[in-house]
Please model this.
Amino acid sequence: MSTIIQQKKADGGLDLAHLRAETPGCAHVLHLNAAGSALPSQRTLDATLDHLKLEAEIGGYEAAAMARDELEGFYPSVARLIGAQSEEIAFVENATRAWDLAFYSLDFKPGDRILTCVSEYSSNYISYLQVARKTGAEIVVVPDDEHGQIDLAALERTIDTRTKLLSISHVPTQGGLVQPAEAVGKIANDAGVLYLLDACQSVGQLPVDVDRIGCDFLSVTGRKYMRGPRGTGFLYARRATTADIEPVFLDNHAAKWTDDNAYTTRDDARRFENWERYFAGVIGLKVAADQINELGIGPIWARLSELADGLRRRLATLKGVSLTDLGKVKGGIVTFAVDGAQHAGLRDALRRQAINVSVSTQFSSRLDLQRRGLRDVMRASVHVYNTEQELDRFVAAVEALL
Ligand SMILES: Cc1ncc(COP(=O)(O)O)c(C=O)c1O
Model:
């Protein structure tokens, strides 16, 4: 059996040698920072650069006209990835803005409740605080269960007629936890409550199907598990439940000025977009979405889980290292604490060896890390292009620095 076939078998059907050859960054770095920004494929890089070049050569508007089919193709490609309709997708420059566009378009009144989880992302929580201060809405943090995921029984007890929104992060920035998004969605749907899911770290990493999950809005970034260009992302808005929600911002792309004193808003999710955008990025993210669709999210998730579990097993053998991931289901983000070490110093020392990891701090998830008494954690996040040999090398490098 050839090595590639053996490798293919070991990698759940993914052709690892080909994936690595198609990822230029693999030749330069041991990249364990997919949760920060993953390495893009050559195809994505070429598509993005080609459009930038075309803009420089023939003019930006003319390049957009020439690339019309690819630009339009963004919507069905991304929709397919999450089981949505093309009309339910808006291109947005990052996950935070996509999330904001949904959240700030809601009309909160005094006494309305926003239900969220302990591991919520900081930017989202800051927005809850701002809206609560301005409108008199109330934030309710549903506690975790014994696995560190949202306590579904507590959620069921808490959700009530005052609840205007249920909003959680599917996979937090600071660990491997995968929230039971589908079970949460069932509770939200049964209660008739709008459900906003921050899927920034989950789309591209694991199967995400908006109908199974039952979310009304879902926000995603391009550069992380989707392996798209930086400065890209998207918002999903379910047509059946959000069509009446008018975006917080409108411009002459989202709406049409029909009379001196009148306008009509677009009736698809593109009403959340604005006119100017990173066109090369739209094309790059389309190509990245196509690649995920081609590889299959099932094999990607199987491979990421296998790599991450293997990394956790290896790290557990190191003295002074404690794993800090929560959850019944754990994904590709591996976090750990090192006794007596300055995690930022450790990250920098690894970077000097061309090994990329990051540090998650209370800055990005205050409630969760604070409650666990963790100031920060080391974060090593795998993607399909990583190998078992890289994990061995990484763990040996950490051990040498202890
Ligand atoms: C869970 C989660 N939500 C939102 C964001 C913000 O994404 P972006 O930087 O694309 O706005 C992040 C980034 O790390 C994240 O991890």
